[in-house]
C-alpha cells in the first residue's frame, strides 16, 4: 500500500492550524482526538507520538508517547494504549506550552504502523531506535502554538 494511503487526522486540530487552548497548557490539557485511515496490511500495532522539534532543547520536546494501539481504522482508542514517558518526566499527554515569546512551535503528531508490538513504554528516542525496522507505515499531522 502506498504510504500516501495511510493518514492521520484530528477533528480537534486540523493539519497546519493553531492548537486550540483546550489542548494546550502545562497542566490540565485534554489530549486531542486522532483518527487513522489506510492502516497498512500486516500491521500488528500502532504507536502515537507528539513531538515539538522547535523546543529550545537539544532534541526538541516529546509531548506524548502511546503504545499498544490496535491497528484499526477510525478514531484511535487512546484508552486501549499504554502511555509512555514524555519529556517533563510524566506519562500521558502534556499540552503545547512553548516559552513565552519563543515564536510559533510546530507539534508533529506521528502514527506508526508496526510489524511487531512495542514492549514496555520506551521514550520517543528509545522507540525510534528499537523499532525503526518494524515501521511499515507512518503518517503525521501538524498543529502550531505560540505564547
UniProtKB/TrEMBL annotation:
Identification of the protein by name: UPF0098 protein Rv2140c
Organism whose genome encodes this protein: Demequina sediminis
Family: Belongs to the UPF0098 family.
NCBIfam families: YbhB/YbcL family Raf kinase inhibitor-like protein
